[in-house]
Amino acid sequence: MTMMTYDAAHAAATKAPRKGFWARMFDRIVEARTKQAMREIELYRHLVPRELEQAGWKVSDRSEDSLPFVR
Predict the structure, then answer these.
(1) What is the four-CA torsion angle of 46, 37, 32, 28, rounded to 10 degrees?
(2) Whole-angstrom Cα distance, residue 40 to residue 32?
(3) Is 45 exposed, middle or buried (0-12, 13-18, 19+ CB in 10 A)?
(4) By CB count within 10 A, which of 49, 50, 52, 63 is most buried?
(5) In the chain, what percentage of residues exceed pLDDT 70?
(6) What is the DSSP code (8-state) at residue 61?
(7) pLDDT tens digit string along 23-42?
(8) Residue 14 and residue 12: Cα distance in Å, rounded?
């Protein structure tokens, strides 16, 4: 006769499924591009109109036409 014991603590300690290689690669690429974009924004922040900063960068479909840029 065989007896098996199920331990909840042991089951919780088992590894969670790991993301695949390409999913991890994509996440890292997105993270790197986001950081690069933030660095670029900081470089040219002095060129952004004060009105846009005061508005808190809240751009929506309705407020997009009132931006202080010439199209």
Answers:
(1) 140
(2) 12
(3) exposed
(4) 52
(5) 51
(6) T
(7) 999 999 999 999 999 898 88
(8) 6
